[in-house]
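Now for our specimen.

. . .
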Amino acid sequence: MTFIIQGLNGSHEIMPLEKLFKPGGVAKTEAISASRPIDEEEHHDTGKEGRQAGVKQAYRTVSELPQVGTVLFAERIMSTSVVTLTPETTIDETLRVLRNSRFRHLTVVSESGRLVGIVSDRDILRYAGGLSENYRPQPPHKLSDRVGLLMKTPVLTASPDTDVRHIARLFVAQHVGAMPIVEAGVLAGIITRNDILKAVMSNLVLELWA
């Protein structure tokens, strides 16, 4: 399982999981002292036995769920028929590809098939509509401009043997919309949010947040 930052000119950098995910957990709290003692009569709890019974039933329900013994890897759910562009593809042509393919993300590859960038429909529409990254008005761009001028690079990628749960977490934690799958530096497939949702629907016991 590997996450790699894929850039121009074949450059790449392996990214460890601890750099991709922010540390979780609950912030440490400081102890406080009671403002007044609690009277025994005030602390009378008549629902204790009922709550304990509910907790036991909940644990029984969880323990009876089917257990997932195998890991779902990226290669199992990735789309292999990936529509690609080159850095020289024009904005006009990219808009046509987006319209005909109905994809929201397109990968940009070099002549040798190595991934060099990625572009989304929002990137294209914002660029063609004369909007900056912060959606502020700017002089309109030409539809004859190259997609290499606005593609995102370098690109975060994953290997085919990456656990799908980590990719799903990245979609949320890093606001990622698509994850190219690269093997030996060459684009092998792509995983989108829809692919993750389909995986959840097909594997109802898939514990994505484990």
Q: What stands out?
A: The helical segments are 17-20, 48-63, 74-77, 91-101, 121-128, 164-173, 193-202.
